[in-house]
Amino acid sequence: MKKKQWQGWGPGEQAEQHYLIKPRALAGGGDIRHVSEFLRACGWRDRSKPGGPLLMDSPDRSIRIGYDPFVQPGGWTIHGKATAHQEEWTAILGRQAPVEIVAGLTDALTRPRSAHAPDVWAPLQEQRWHIPPGDGHITAVSPDRSAWMQFHQAPDGHAMWWSGAQDHQGNGWTAQFTATTPMHLVQSYAAALASPEPVMRPRGRVPHSARIRTTSVSVLPSQLSAWQQARITAARATAWARTSWQTNRPPTTTSPHATQRSARAHR
């Protein structure tokens, strides 16, 4: 007996096997377009050369993001130039850092800072990470002990953030952030690292690790496209709102004293 295709899938569309992976920190790198397409929709400029590594600049050219898989160990480099209100900073994430976790940091680069003081440890505590007291450094470890986040300060005063994930076979990745990295970015990264939500990988892209748990799902190409487009649409809406506010914000009110000084200067 010949099976009939369910008509709700659309003409000629075939479901594809994917896997939901937990913990997300051990899911492998994933598709870098998850990061790059969002940034492009937010107005970032793609400086990449054909066939070369990814290279993107922020609209004001103060931040550069690169991904280079052609060198060892390869991975992500995010560099912020020194400005009037921010010291120079750098973040480096390994090639196997899941793009969903990388996006926790890079997406935050496109949003205005919150008025609340950032707390890197808060999203980890919410997910019951273990944070024992330390001397000169603080280390948070995930409940399954597969991922960590550490602030380390050496006796000479040099400080840095160090993070990553590793399984029993030694497979994994690390990330480093200079102490000057804006805290709201480190907090956004920590929230993405600790998120209990699984991430999805296609068949053939699932890491060989005894530490991960997988759930097989059937996904239509149109579903994947719709999910990706929803993320791009959200990025464009955010970019439009930011541009609209900057264009239409009211002018700064001039103080009476400044007006008087200006009047006197023109007499």
UniProtKB/TrEMBL annotation:
Q: Where is the composition biased (Polar residues)?
A: 247-267
> Which domain of life does this protein belong to?
Bacteria
Q: Cross-referenced Pfam families, in alphabetical order?
A: SPDY
User: Which residues belong to any copy of the DUF317 domain?
Assistant: 58-114, 142-199
Question: Per the record, which residues fall in region Disordered?
Answer: 241-267
Which InterPro entries does the record match to this protein?
DUF317_SPDY
Q: What is this protein called?
A: DUF317 domain-containing protein
Species this chain originates from: Streptomyces prasinus
